[in-house]
Automatic annotation (TrEMBL):
<dbReference type="InterPro" id="IPR003607">
    <property type="entry name" value="HD/PDEase_dom"/>
</dbReference>
<feature type="domain" description="HD-GYP">
    <location>
        <begin position="139"/>
        <end position="333"/>
    </location>
</feature>
<dbReference type="Pfam" id="PF13487">
    <property type="entry name" value="HD_5"/>
</dbReference>
<protein>
    <submittedName>
        <fullName>HD domain-containing protein</fullName>
    </submittedName>
</protein>
<dbReference type="InterPro" id="IPR037522">
    <property type="entry name" value="HD_GYP_dom"/>
</dbReference>
Length: 333
């Protein structure tokens, strides 16, 4: 006999919830699940759809007609559920039949899971304590901000262009916030604004042709390179109509500038770049180096930092020192 939904939040030997609730609106027609969907009937969880089944419109419509607000997945199948949400997040955010608050909840639920993995894998530290709590709060606040239907449509287009872009964006956010918080002048409000800018920094790439995102930079023609370099400014245009703070806009517009003034789109030098932009520029470069891209395979942290040191004229030296300390989990006075 299955435990009741009331018991699903209870833990066994500290292992966490036995069942995970989710909205039936997240069941998208013509998609396949790797997890079993359970339904509450008479305060007991019973089988509704088997793992591997292809969802149909009838699956979702039947639940809505019954007035079902939550269905459940077993905790041991959490990985399959999370993979399903990641694979279909863009579609969910773009589905106007789902209320904006539910779409924002899907964004938060999926993003915080990815953020937790990035935090643990990139910073080699458990996703516990004040450092992660601060990032978790930032993602939660961002989800509330993005609950506007227009914002959700823009984020949906961003994610649908390629989840690797979004995963990279969250990676840059984790690194930039972790780096900036070592500076005493970086308060919570600044971290929130910069965190949102990091998440949105590559949204201008939604305006570029798909083939260009898959092409090695050294094989681009002069015209293709010129077009590619429009994406920071294009990002500002994409977000026109959204109320964004200047720090957020700096992150989007300046993320490919360099301290030596040889970056783009405007060739702004270090002395004209605010600290938060210099931090993001460095973290964007580091995250790109440690991921497989059209320009080459992923480098390990040592190789990435060696490359950054070789190109040190491009970056803020103090930020390089602090990033090394953050990556080594050292305390910074």
């Amino acid at each position: 006999m299955q435990p009741s939904p009331k018991q699903q939040e209870q833990t066994e030997s500290g292992k966490g919830p036995r069942f995970i609730p989710f909205s039936p609106l997240f069941i998208l027609p013509s998609t396949r699940s790797g997890f079993t969907v359970l339904l509450n009937q008479n305060d007991r969880l019973v089988l509704y759809a088997k793992g591997g089944d292809i969802f149909t419109e009838a699956h979702r419509q039947r639940l809505l007609e019954m007035g079902v607000e939550r269905v459940y997945v077993r905790a041991e199948e959490k990985g399959f559920y999370e993979e399903y949400m990641r694979s279909h997040l863009g579609e969910l955010l773009d589905d106007e039949t789902i209320p904006p608050e539910d779409r924002a909840a899907a964004w938060y639920q999926t993003s915080i899971g990815i953020t937790r993995e990035i935090f643990q894998n990139r910073l080699s530290t458990p996703a516990t304590g004040k450092r992660f709590a601060q990032i978790e709060g930032l993602v939660k606040d961002t989800s509330a901000y993005l609950a506007d239907p227009k914002a959700l449509k823009k984020i949906a287009a961003y994610i649908q262009r390629g989840f690797h872009l979004y995963d990279h964006a969250l990676g840059v956010m984790v690194l930039t916030v972790s780096l900036l918080r070592t500076f005493p002048q970086a308060d919570d409000e600044l971290l929130f604004r910069v965190g949102m800018g990091a998440i949105l920094h590559d949204i201008g790439k939604t305006t570029l042709p798909e083939y260009l995102l898959q092409k090695r930079s050294d094989l681009m023609t002069p015209e293709e390179r010129r077009l590619f370099r429009t994406h920071p400014a294009a990002g500002i245009a994409v977000l026109a109509g959204m109320t964004l703070e200047s720090e957020t806009l700096h992150c989007i517009l300046f993320h490919h500038e360099q301290s030596d003034g040889k970056g783009y789109p405007a060739g702004v030098a270090s002395q004209e770049l605010p600290l938060h932009a210099r931090a993001l520029i460095l973290c964007n470069a580091y995250d790109n180096l440690t991921r497989a891209t059209p320009d080459g395979p992923a480098k390990n942290p040592f190789e990435a930092l060696t490359q950054i040191k070789a190109d040190r004229e491009r970056y803020d030296i103090e930020c390089i020192k602090r990033l090394i300390m953050v990556l080594s989990n050292a305390e910074i006075a």
